[in-house]
Fold this protein.
Amino acid sequence: MTEAAFAPQDAAALLRWYVDHGIDETIGEEAIDRFALPPPAAVAAAAASAASTPASSPAAPTPIRAPAAPAVVRAPVPLESPQLAEDAREVSRRAATIAELEEAVRAFEGCALKRTAKNTVFADGVAGAPVMIVGEAPGADEDRLGKPFVGVSGQLMDRMFAAIGMSRERDLYITNILFWRPPGNRTPTLSEQAICLAFTRRHIELARPKIVVLAGGTAVKAVLNTTEGITRLRGKWATLTLDDGSEVPALPTFHPAYLLRTPASKRQSWADLLSLDKRLKDLGVR
Ligand code: URA
């Protein structure tokens, strides 16, 4: 009798390990269209082979799915092309309102992440609120529900802002630099960030917040166009200059997911929140 390579409990433990490390989807980074028709060369070879079959040979089984139309081979989209970020900039510039921008993001097909995501995650909270929070990317919960920061890290973020009397129902507008979940929560590529960032910069212009809070190193690096790490930058006010020439004070702070892993850093985040509260009071917003 051959022994099983894995005891069932080992396989379950392995699956749990995958999920703990964010590997919760059996997909690749690129969707494979298994319904795509074969390229013309393969079609021609198959036709030639069928033509050479003697007439007396037994009839071939009827194919379940006969090709309904001549083979059309789609040109692969070059997913890392800088042209895609330029396209995103062009499309976003044409949006005159947040609603138009949202429509443009939902219709945009130039970001590979959209192919594997369940939902486009655009924003939550009050458009036009004094504080706009920009995070990194939707996770599994956000992808499922179509709203940013609704999982455990979002719940921590809500509690932190509630501690200074702010809520997404009244004073916060929340988005991410990416509108689609990267498979398995992997770090978004620079190309994916550049494409979505074009929309996010326009999003900030149109929302006209008094202050932008940048949650986590990826958002800080992308929005402030810096290579400095979050540990150095958190709590230090920066000025974000937008494409229309307007300037917005920006506060880098730790990502709530980092705080869940490193609770000792909550002390620094509390200092950031107090600094935000003071700045809002200085601006006469609170
Ligand atoms: N992390 C983010 O950066 N954004 C979300 O929306 C959720 C988790």
About this structure: The chain has a mean pLDDT of 86. Residues 125 and 168 are 5 Å apart (CA to CA). The beta strands are 124-125, 131-135, 172-176, 211-215, 238-241, 247-253. Residues 135-139, 142, 148-149, 151, 153-154, 176, 257 surround uracil (CB under 6 Å).
